Structure formats: structure tokens, C-alpha cells
Fold these 2 entries.
Entry 1:
Amino acid sequence: MRRIFLLITPLLCLAPALAIGDSPSPSVGAWNSYLHKQLYGDREIGEVDENYMRLDGPANTPDPASTPLSLHLGKAAAGKIKQVRIIIDNNPSPLAATMDLKPGVPIDEIDLRVRVDRFTSVRAIAEDTDGRLEMRSTWINAAGGCSAPPSAAGGGQLGDIRFRPSDDNKSLLVSLRHPNSSGFQINPVSGDPIPPHYVRHIKLSAGGQTILEADTGISIAENPSVRISSATALAGPIRFEAEDLPTLKNYSATWNGSAAKAAGTSK
Amino acid sequence: MKRLRRALLAITCLLSAMPAMGGGEFALAEVAPGVFVHAGKPLPLDAPGHDDIANIGFIVGSKCVAVIDTGGSLRIGRALRAAIQQRSRLPVCYVIDTHVHVDHVLGNAAFKADKPSFIGSDLLTAALVRSREFFLKQYAADFDAPADAAQIVAPDRSVAPGETLSLDLGERHLQLRAWPKSHTDCDLTVFDDKTRTLWTGDLLFVQRLPALDGSVKGWLGVIDELLKLPAPRHIVPGHGAVGSDLAAMLAPERAYLRMLEQGVRAQIAAGKPMDAAIREVGASEKGTWLLWGETHPHNVARVYQELEWE
């Protein structure tokens, strides 16, 4: 039974062409050997300096199942990027997120938490409004993030959404209570495989316009969260929407301003 | 040439004799009458000698011997068994595991031949199953080659969290108590009524930074409960020096865990991401604990996830 999930999972969350079976030896590097071609064809990808874009991750992760990643966009990039992909080369499902940003909105930081299955390169590839592709990467040492048992998180129910803005409203942490099961996990009590159940799409809007929309997969950690930080205050109301697989359930919540901050609006 | 050969032979003999000498050097302290502790070394889990970092030992009754934790390898388990045989001809009737961590349980298999009853928390078996692959892959060299799952010994008798089990060793009783999720989800303490010795497992870390794999709120709750028990006279922590004042020994750990809980909660409330919490929470306490860099980021990450939805 477990094997079936192992086979289904990559099919569910990636194009079949990206399934596990195609993954060559990790020492060659999944990126060079096939991911580049499948995601971007023959397009050239520049490697930018950290003033343009930087991807921070822990050299040794404090938690393979919930490894923090922090993408920083410099002045030259903030507001001029239309899409960023986060790729974890050696994960069974390398494409962690494809994030579409709203050009003109000066987002300068995006924080995510991801599962990291083993020692890997993690890369961010940004496409700017002129269609240029730029890349930054980092190395993370981890083991077992995709098969780790569910966390000890207490409180909240599936679908709860929390908004946690900074005092100046320039940054906002949004979290969704959701197992984001990878399909590689085992129920620690029964020993049975936990079927895949993960968020496939999220959308975040501010003041009526979509500022971030992302396709996500099983490489996103349990209780998916995204934090964005902007050079200017985010306009209210803020709305967050998510859809999962395989249940195709929708989760959404709206935050109208600091009055709701303490309450933590939920669905 | 002959001389050189002889010299080489002598060195080889010396080297091959060393493991046996190592067994002889297995230090034991009798911290109370019939209560023997082998002190673990303050090393990280990936350093050479990582199989000998936990406090392990045994208690001798008039009928038989109870082992409490067996070390992080079969080698350490065997050294402990040899040390017991030097001190007592009584059989080993119980092997008690205080929790699932590799540095406490991998020596279990060294005692199989004694046919003891292996005892742990109700949740220990599931935790061992969960850790099996990780142990075999990450700590393969700490098993007998080839490493296999048969060398990971699970309990045949267990104690439910919140309950106690009394074991009769002859002229002394051990009270085993299992606890709710705290350091891990399968923590168990041992209390020897004869000498009033409390064996805490990893519910108490002395000097070495506490490692959190369960629940910070649960652990703080268990510390409160431990302090309500009739005061023990001798305390054997999971790591660090044996002592006699439980409250004083628990104080630094309790302060650290409270700081973690409050610090991380404030970071979450302010909308800070996990990596900021790892950088900022507790930074001023770095110098007061051993192995901070190896353990603190992990602890913050755990607490962050635990508190995010409260």
C-alpha cells in the first residue's frame, strides 16, 4: 500500500514527466540533468549577486520537515519580478512552489517553510517583467523531511487561517492549519501510511488586488505558512485563499485591519 | 627487518588488546548503595564517542538486577553488561528504557541473552518503529554488522503515561512512572525506594542543553509534577552530573524552557518567521549551556510549530 502512495504522490503534484522515475543520480544534480530543461527549456538563466536576490536557508536544518527559507529581493528586483520558483533538487517532488507576484508591489521578502528530504541544493529562480531569468541557490543538509511524522502542533482545526501582521503593516505572516501530508509519512501509532493531502494553490490579495499567487506541493511543510514583507504598508483588506488535493476543498479568510489581529480570523 | 617486524607485531598486539582495555575503563560510580551510574560524555550526536553520551547504569537488589538505559551502541551495552557481571552474580531481570533516543536504547540487544523483561512507556514501541530506519541508516556502525532491525529491542512490558509500575528486585522496589509528552512522547522515570534515588532519563539535562522532541508545554508541566513528588535524595539526570537537590538541578532547564516558550510565542505574535525566532530567541544564553549550536535551533523550530496554533 505504501508503495502505491510513493508512486501516486509525484504524479499528483507534478507533471508526469517530473515523476520520481526520471530522477537521475542526485550527484549529477537534478537541476542540470532535467529540471532546467523541463521548467525553462533552453532559456538562459543568469546567476545574480545577492544585492538583487538572495535565498537564505540553514546549512544544517533545525527541522527537516519544516525548514525555513527566506527569499530576499533587493531594490533592483522588488516590484519587478513576475514569477519565482523554489526548487529543492533532491526532494522526491523538487518543485516546491511557483509563485506569481504582482509587478509594482514592492515585496522584498518572502518566507516559506519546506520539507527537505536529504542534502540538497535549494534554488530560487526569478523571472522579471522583461522576461529575464535569474537564479540564486543555497545548500541545506537535512534527512527525512518528507517522511517525518506529523508535528506536535496543538490547537486549531483543519482550515483555520491566521494573519499576523507586523506593527507597521509592512509584513504579514499568514498560516493555514493543514497537515500538508506528503504521502511519504507513516502514522506513528497505527503504522499505516498517511495518504497525500496537500495544498496545491494559494492566493493572497491586498486591497482588492492579487499580490501573490502560488502553485504548491508536497515539499511545503505541515501547516503551510507564507510571510511577505513589503517596502510599503500592505493595503487592507487582506484575503487569503487556498485549495487542496485530493479533496479540492477551499479555505479562505479575510483580514480587515489591526482590530482583527488579536482574534486571528479564521474561515 | 626482523626487529621491525617484531616491533610491528608488538604494536598490533597492543592495538588489538585495546578494546578489552576500553571495557576495563568503563567507569562506574556507586552513587547510593547498590545504585551504579556510568556517566555519559558531553559530546554531540555525530561526534566519535557519540554512543557514550548518556548516563546509564543499574540497580542491584537481593534477587536480581535492573538496568536503566543501555547506551548508544551494542558496544556500550556490552561494556555495561560486563561491568554488571563484575559486581554481581545476580541475573539481570529488567532492562528499563527511559525513552526512545538512540543514546539510551541501542545497547538493549546486549542483554537479550539474559532474557530480562524489557520495559518502557506505552508509546516507546511505536517510537522505536518510527525511528528504526533512521537508527539503521544514521547509526549503522553502532550495531553489530550488518545492522538490522532485530537488534533494536522493543519493550515486552509497558507503563501508560500517568501510571506507575512497581518492580521488586528483592529488598528494594523500583517505581516506574511514564509521563505525558514532554522531552519525547515516551518518557519514563525510575525511583528506587530504598535509597530514594530518582532516575530522570532526559526529563532532566544538567549542563548539556535540553533537547526538545516532544512538547515544551508538556515538559514544563512534568517538571512541576516532579517537584511535587517526595524529595529524592539522589538524582541521576539523563545527561550531566548526579546530584542531591532536584529543585536546584531542574532550575536552569526550567528557566531555559520557559524562556523558549515565552520568547517564541512573542515572535509568533509579532509575525516573525521561524528563522528570525531561531536567531533572536535566547541568543543571550548561548554561553551558559553545552552544545548550544547543535541543539538550540532545533528546539526553537519545535516550539515554533507547537505554539503556532494555540
Note: The first helix of chain B runs from residue 2 to 24.
Entry 2:
Amino acid sequence: MKNKVIEKLAAHRELGPLLLLIILGLVFYSLSPAFLSVLNITNMIEFIPEIGIIALGMTLLLTGGEFDLSVGALFGFTPVLMFILKNEGFMGIEMAFFVVIAIAALIGFTNGILVTKIGISSFLVTIGMQLVVRGTGLYISEGFPQSSWQAKTPLKSALAYSIDFPGSYFKIIVSLFWFIGMAALAYYVLNKTRFGNWIKATGGNEKAARARGINTDSVKIILFMTTAVLAGFAGIIDAFRIGSAYPVSGTGYELEVIAMTVIGGTSLFGGRGTVIGTILGVLLLRTIRNGIVVVGVPGLAYNIFVGIAILSMMGVHAYLEKQSGGGS
Amino acid sequence: MLSKARFLGVFLLVVGLTALLVAPAAIGADDKPTFYWISHGSSGDPIWIFALRGAKQAAKDLNVNLKSSFHQNDISTHQEAFKSAIAAGADGIASSSPDQGVLQDEVAMAKERGIPVVFFNADDPTTGRDAYVGADNVEVGKSWANYLVNNDLVEEGDFVWMPVEVPGATYQREETRGISSVFDPLGIEYDVFDAKYDPVQSLQNMKNYLSSHKKKVDAIIGLGDMVMGNIKETFEAAGVEPGDIPVVGWGNSAETAKEVMDGYVQAATWQYPQSQGYMPIALLNMAHQGKPIGYDIVTVALYEKENAESYYELAQQ
């Protein structure tokens, strides 16, 4: 007879990363109380929305049975192009925003077409697209960051306005609300809509989904476009927040985002996804990244922690999979 | 089938490994001053390894705690680490500048709390940091371009090939800015080449390029240490004799120093990376003791064949 705790964990995969998050939080706090200081919490939540928004797109795409290795390049490229369009006088910043978001959608569409209609694996398509996008960003910018655009505009305020609390170091960047809103939307789509069922069916068993009349190609193309748009959107938020757009921004984010998503409980093989788990995965890896700096783990040991977290959560998921009798 | 105990063991393993890794840092939490050393570079880059070694040596010599991190040119995480150091109550922060202006708020926040800040390797004086240790990459770029021009190694209409490991990285941009300020008015053409960061790839890409473009290339400026270390093998693969194509660039490795000694490279710049690790910690310790540190320390020297041997020996230490 299976233990009730195990059954509960198997049914709610988010509990694993949540437990790990709590344990690590306590460990970091016990070693350095500054870990939970107002300044450090503010510090952590500044960057979480940006990486989190990319992870939401990746969660949907992974659930649909594909992944995208070009998100990091899009994160860097989209704001660079937006600022070039503005700085070179082609158009205003608001129009440039919509143009580059449309271009990100087009890149996602291209990925989707190549994967579904030509039949190339998403690994090869998106790694190729990563090189194309990254290279284009470097070429059009000649490697230089696009000068920060400091003027206050409604767009900048809408994406990266900082809400300060007088007399305190606590502040909230409005991107946090975008992340929360998008997470709620992604949760709703994945769990409460017919399209969410199509995503899970497409990722779980594509042939069976097709037999049930689901246009799996369209589902995947929409997911690739969504992922690309979210990556570009997150890059624009980041550029507004830090004040400049860098063509090399987002390097390596694709693997970090996939790790966050999978740690949260989304299957790498499709069919099962959890938005709440992804949020916990994002919090977990960001907590690790932040905590080891606060505590003072040697810089060269930085990645060991991330690796341990990924391996341990994979171990937990594999174990729960066996216990619940499911396949991976 | 796995037991519940084994399942829980996974979590205990995580906690155990966490404790194992952070224990040295926790044990170091004594009354000694604690300085943070934050690099925007890569933990795999030889120059940063040298620099970190210097910082560690300073911590040992001065009996202070050192906490270090690398951020692979990622500005967001660099900013986060800087603020984390402030939140953790650092006694001083040594940081490289990922780019101009991006650490303004962070330095201001540190100063507000009385935390001294020393920049190293890449500077941003507009932040109001207390001191800087390292080279001025724009000036270094100018010095390479001027070396080629002043020694009649390039002239109007010539083409200079400029391989680099990470196009778009701060050092490449600043060096190129300095080079362009010399070459542009003289009508000398140049092109930054993406050699890639992986040692094997960078060597292969450079061999491929030079083999097919050697007639076009009048001079080479290596914008990074890895590409400079590839010059000898690249020349051999492309059938270029030492000295046929003049080369200048960074020279912070034993490989490049040897290339200078053997005539493959005409001049190289040594930037004393270990000092870029050591001196910021020494300055922070002085500031912690109430001594003023409002001055910069330049750690650059251009060396040629005549004095390359001493740098070769230095690089091998």
C-alpha cells in the first residue's frame, strides 16, 4: 500500500519543488539572515518576472511536446531591434514595440512551420534559429548595446515602472504584475479551456490527438509563436528596466528556463504541464542563484548548486512517476 | 520499489550538499571584514581565473573574508549580485563594470550605506565608485591601432582582421571604439570576427578564415586572450610565416608571450590580471580601516620581443 504522503506528492507535483524551495530558503536564511532582508527580497523579485515570463511560454510549449532553444536569443534581439528602429528614426517607440513583437511572432511561426510541416526536430530548428537571431542582433547592432532610452513614455511605465515605497528599500517593478497576470492566463488556458486540452493531448500522444480531430500542427505553431512573443516581451521589459538593450543578453537562458520548467513538474516529453510548478521552479532557481551570492559560496562553485537542484528534482519526479505507475 | 525513507533521503541529500558547499562561507562568518568580488566575466576565462586567484591571495594575506561570483556578461544577474552583497552587509564591494551606466543605482545604494566600492578590469567612473584597478580598454584599443600605424605596419586602404571570442562583450566594444578612433580618420578598414568562445572552435574558425583570406589581411588585432593564443597555429595552418602579417593584441597568457618571443606577434598587452584581483581587495581593506582610496591604479604594459621573456615567466606562475 502506497504511503499517503507519496500519493499526495505524486498527485501534486508542485509540492516537491515547494518543499525544496522552503528547505533551501531556511538553509540560506540560517546562514545569512540578510537573505530575507527587504533589500534582498526586492532584489530577487526584480528579475523573476522577466525569466518567469519566458518560462511560462516554455511550459506551454513543453506540454505540447516541443521546446525552443531560441528564446534566449530572442530575449536579446527583440529589444535591440526595437531601440534601433527608434534611435535610427524609423518610427516611434510604441510602434517599434508592436513591430518587434510581430517579428518575434513571425520567428515563432517559422519555427512552428519548420517543425510541423517540414518535419525537422524542434531541437535542430530552434538551435538554428538561435544562431540566426543572435547573429542578426550582433550584426545590426555591430555588437554595441543600443543606447538607453531614458525618456519616460507610457510604454516604459507600463512595462518597467518602479513603484517605490518611501523610507524603505522595498520596491516593485510593474513587470511583476505582468508576470502574475500572464501566469494566471497561462494557468487558465492550460487547465480550463479546450485549447489547454488540445495542448496536453498533442504533447501526450500526437497521433491519438489527431485521430480525435485536433489540428496538432496548428496547436504547435501557436505555441511556438506564443513562446517567441513572450521571450521578446520579457527582453523588452529587461531592457527598459536596466536602461539598455544588449545583443548578447539572454545567453544561456534557454537551458535555465527549461530547467526551471522541468524542475516545476512539467514533463520534458510533453503531455503534462504545470504553471504553478513552473512558478515554483523559477523561484527555486532564482533563490539558489541569489542565495549562494548572499551566503558566499565560491564563484567557481556557482553551477554545482543549480546542478544539484535539477538532479534532485529529476530524481524526485522519476520516483513519483514509478510510484504512480506512469511513464515519463 | 523505493521506500519512503529513500524518497525523503533525496531532500536530506540536497540539504547535506547545500550545507557542505556553504559551510566554508558560514564558518567564515566571523568578525573579519567581508568583501564581495563580483566579475561580469566567465568563470572559464583564464584572465578571470588569474584575477580571482589574486583576490583570494589578497584575502589570505590581509586576513579578510572573500565572497566571489561570476556573471558571464549577464547584466541582470550582475546587478542582483551587487545588491545581494549590499543586503548581506558587505564591508566593501569590488566589481567589474558590465557596461557604462548599468551599476549607477547599485553603487549609489552602496555609498548611501557607507560601503566602499572599487571597480576592476572594466571601469565606469560615472557611477562615483571610489577607485579603479585595471586597464582602460578604449585606450588599449587605441594603443594597438597606434602601434600598427606608428610602425608603418598599416596604411590607408589596408584591412585589419580583428578576431574575438565574444562579439558584443564589453571589452570588444570598448577596444573597437579605441581602434576606430585611430583607423577611421586614416581610411584603414577593419572587421570584428566571431571566433567563438570554445577553444577548439575558435582555433578552427581562425584557421578557416585566414586560410581563405590571407591575401586580404594586412594586419591582425586580437581582441581577446584566447584568439591571441591561437595565432601560431593559425599561421601554420594558413601557411603564413612569422612576421608576414603583423599582429598586436592582448598578451595575458604564456602562449601569447611565447608567440611574441618567436616573432608571430609583434606586440602584446599584459594587464596584470592577478593585480586586478589583488589590488581591489587591498584598497577595500584600506577603506575599511578608514584610509582614503580615491585614486586609480593602471595595470597595463605593452611588451615586445625584447622583454617578452619576463612576461612568459610571469604567465607560467
Note: Chain B has two domains: 33-135+272-299, 137-270.
